[in-house]
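Thread: quick sanity check before group meeting

JM: Hey all, I'm pulling together slides for Thursday and realized we never actually wrote out the predicted structure for the chain we discussed last week. Dropping the sequence here so it's in one place. If anyone has concerns about the input, flag it before I start.
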Amino acid sequence: MIKIKYISIPLRNFLQSMRLPAYIALCISIFCSSQTLAQQADSLKSKKQIIVLPVVAKSIETSWSFGIAASATFHLLREDTIARTSNIQALSLYSLKRQFIVAITGAQYFKRESYILYEQFSYSYFPDKFWGLGKHSPDTAGEFYTFRQYYITPHLMRNLGSDLYVGIPLEIQKVLEVDYKKGGDFDKQNVAGRRPYLISGLGLSFTFDDRNNAFSPDRGNFAQLYFNHFGRYLGSDYVYTNYVVDLRKYIRIYDRQVLALQAYSFNNTGNVPLRSLASLGGNNSMRGYYDGRYRDRNQFTIQAEYRVPVYRRFGAVVFGSFGDVGHFMTDYTFNSLKYSYGGGLRFALNKKEKLNLRLDYGIGGGRNHGLYLQIGEAF
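JM (edit): ok, ran it. Output follows.
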């Protein structure tokens, strides 16, 4: 599963249950420190800009967590006025409960965007929750488990002209261990991937992209269709094929106000292991649901977000979404649809490149809700 986002590593585990006063204090401190950094960055004549932010958080699940997030924006060729701004983000987190994440994500736009390279590299040792498979998994506290893995996903795309691209996505995931409750839901449902495994897949992508900005577009379209086959010939322990359709549209409404729309479908055929199943929720889609609250082979979501500038570097958004998971695509029914909605604040770390720090609060059905702090928009 390819996830190209701007620092899209799952911070949900320590942000989701954070007490509100501590979280607000964290955000204020980051806003104040980042404003000075952002003003300095905007004043530079060089197109290379780097922002480094401290991360301090507290939650019921992780106790205190500490780390650093960094973002670099640049042009590979300064004289190239066609290519969009390239970027690389890095994140390192460690908690008092010995949870650890290191990740690097990015997008590089080569001369006149003849080629584009997306990449994500990460190592994580992290607790997670499992509610079982299917769209009707019980509304309980969830079963805790811990996984440790490496994840590598380079995706090289070639420009065919007229904003059309063809690409080759590669995905490698090595799950080193899965620590779960013996005799629990994992064993009862015979979940594939509950023991260490390797998956490796190679595929093909087709993309149309005429968005006017890489971070926060206010007009344009993005449409991507790709498949990725995981097979024995690449050393994969599981054989399956992943199909993804991602459609987005950005409409400028009035005085820099933007309506952003996305339809997303994630589908699998074959024997799909645990960490590659479709997962509903998270910081980029169906905000308010724990990422993985519902899992199965297939998923679809539709979401909308209205973005409004407020004052100088500050902005605000409201958003809503609905979606579901299913073992087969024919399993989707109107009665079982899940929904979420919410709002958030934005702070421009880099006004010129429209790189935002976002704070979102999402509410889902039942007892699902959560806070999210990320760099870059959800979509």
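AS: nice. The radius of gyration is 20 Å. The helical segments are 12-15, 20-43, 185-188.
JM: adding both to the slides.
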